[in-house]
Amino acid sequence: MTTQTQKTTYSDHSIDALNALLRGELSAIETYEQALAKFGEDAPHELQDCLDSHRMRAHRLTLRIYDLGGTPAEGSGLWGAFARVFEGGATMFGRTSTVAALEEGEDHGLGLYENRLKDLDPESLRLVGGELQFEQRATHATMHELKYRLG
Known about the structure:
Elements: H1 4-39, H2 45-67, H3 80-89, H4 95-116, H5 122-150
C-alpha cells in the first residue's frame, strides 16, 4: 500500500522530470525561431516543421504537469543558454553550420528524453516514452538529413 507521502514524492519526481523536458522544449522553440529569422524567406520548410513539433511537445508537457498538480516551467532555464549562444552567433553561422547546431541541440534533446524516463510515473512515461520521444527522434533525424542535404 502506498502512502500519500509516497504518491506526492512520485508526482514530485515526475513533475521535476517533465519540467526539465519542458525547459528543453522551450529552448528548442527559441532556437528554431532564431534560425527561421536568420534564414528568412529562404528557410527550409523542415525548420518550421520542427518548430511546430517542439511547440506541440511543450504544450503536451505543460498539460501533463498541470494534471499532476505542478507548475510548468515558464522559461528555458539553463538550456536557454544554448539558444542565447546560438542567437549571438547566428549572423556568423552559415546555413549548414546553423542546421548543424540545430542537429546538436536535437541530439542533446534525445539524451534528455532518455535520461528522464526513469523519473516518470506510469502515465507520464506513456506520454513521454511514446509520443514525445518519437517526435524527438523525428526532429533529430530531420535536422541530420537536412544538414547533409545542405552540406
